[in-house]
Design a protein that fits this description.
The chain has 196 residues and is mostly helical. It is 53% helix and 0% strand. Bound molecules: fe (ii) ion (FE2) (2 copies).
Length: 196
Amino acid sequence: MSEHARFTHMKDGTEQDWAIIAADFALYARQLPGRILTHLQLLGGDFGGFPVDRLTHSLQTATRAYRDGRDEEYVVCALLHDIGDTLASYNHPDIAAAILKPFVSPENHWMVEKHGIFQGYYFFHHLGMDRHLREQFQDHPQYRQTIEFCAKYDASAFDPAYEHLPLEFFEPMLKRVFAEPRQTIYRPATDALQTV
Ligand SMILES: [Fe+2]
Ligand SMILES: [Fe+2]
């Protein structure tokens, strides 16, 4: 049976309590890639009116990025970019961006976070919206990068005939990208846990 902290209000927490929690956290954090894969699988079978379901779209986006020679971090960003579709119907890019933020460059994080506005170039005008909404970012350093992500990989990933790689193919690179956070407010604690 696993140990539990004894406090009922955090004000009473002790170093011993937090040693128990930290040890548990270290194990739980290492299992993050597995939870991400489970959530990606939730996108399967969900078409939302599109020609392919959301998991197929994600795999096509990642496969296209991979076959175009993008590095692992970029490919993992492509794989996860719509993972928020199940829970964040009105702001899905924010979910992927939040999950990826500790593990990827600020440039790739921005690209994922803003991809919804950039992708809108292809359809906002069909919904009575401004397809040029992304122009507000034209002076941003990642403006071109995000246009390219949408044009080459995201907007083109709705082809039922495209032969994408399976989710298992991306599992090792997902594990490598999520192996250790680069930036987190918990850094001093996570550094200590690495040595445990
Ligand atoms: Fe999206
Ligand atoms: Fe997408």
